[in-house]
Design goal:
single chain, mainly beta, OB fold (Dihydrolipoamide Acetyltransferase, E2P), 2 domains, 5-stranded mixed β-barrel, 14% helix
Length: 189
C-alpha cells in the first residue's frame, strides 16, 4: 500500500477508537463508603485511587465497605455512573427483596423491616395511567395513589402535551385542563 492508504487507515482507526471511547462501559469498583442517602462512595479497580462519591446503587444488593461491585458508565463517563451488580454476592443477597429483612424477623424473611435501597425504592414507586377516550378540555382523574403525583400527558397521536394545568383535588383525585379538547393518556407517578 502507498502512504495515502496508510494515512487513510490511521484516520479510520482514530475515528473508531474515538467512537469506542464514548460507548457505555462497565468497570469494577470497591465500596469505600456508605452514605445516609444510600449512595455509595467507590474507588475504581485496580488502581483504587480514583474515588467517586455518591454513586447510586441501582442493583438489588446491599453493600458493605470492602465489597466489590460493577459500575456502569453511561457514555464512558464516571460522572454518569451507577452500580448495577455485586461481585460475589452471598446467599442472602441473592434472595428477592421481599424476603430480605433487617432485624425483627425469624430468619425466613417473613418479619422485620424490608431493606431500603435505591433499587427497591424504584420498584415500589406507584404509577397510574389514565386513558381519556372521549375528547375533553378537562380530564378528571381518580388515581387512588395517596399522593400528589407528577403528570405527563400524551395525545392519542402520542404527541407530548405542554402547558396542561393540573389541579390537585386531594391525594387521590386531580383534574387536568387544556386549551382545547382532545383524547389521549395521562401518566402519573
Amino acid at each position: 500500500m502507498d502512504k495515502t492508504s496508510y494515512d487513510f487507515l490511521d484516520v479510520l482507526r482514530g475515528t473508531i477508537e474515538d467512537k469506542v471511547a464514548t460507548l457505555d462501559q462497565t468497570i469494577y469498583c470497591k465500596i469505600v463508603g456508605i452514605n445516609e442517602d444510600y449512595t455509595l462512595d467507590v474507588t475504581v479497580v485496580p488502581d483504587e485511587i480514583t474515588r467517586i462519591k455518591s454513586v447510586v446503587n441501582a442493583s438489588k444488593y446491599e453493600f458493605n465497605v470492602g465489597d466489590y461491585g460493577i459500575l456502569y458508565k453511561i457514555g464512558n463517563n464516571l460522572a454518569n455512573a451507577f452500580i448495577i451488580a455485586k461481585l460475589g454476592p452471598s446467599y442472602e443477597d441473592n434472595q428477592p427483596l421481599s424476603k430480605q429483612a433487617a432485624g425483627g424477623g425469624d430468619g425466613d424473611g417473613s418479619g422485620g423491616t424490608v431493606i431500603n435501597n435505591y433499587y427497591q425504592t424504584i420498584q415500589e414507586a406507584s404509577t397510574y395511567t389514565h386513558l381519556q377516550n372521549t375528547p375533553a378540555a378537562t380530564w378528571t382523574v381518580n388515581h387512588n395513589m395517596d399522593k400528589y403525583p407528577s403528570v405527563t400527558v400524551l395525545t392519542s397521536a402520542n404527541d407530548l402535551v405542554g402547558g396542561a394545568e393540573v389541579h390537585y383535588i386531594d391525594e387521590n383525585n386531580l383534574t387536568i385542563g387544556f386549551s382545547s379538547a382532545f383524547s389521549g393518556k395521562a401518566f402519573l407517578n
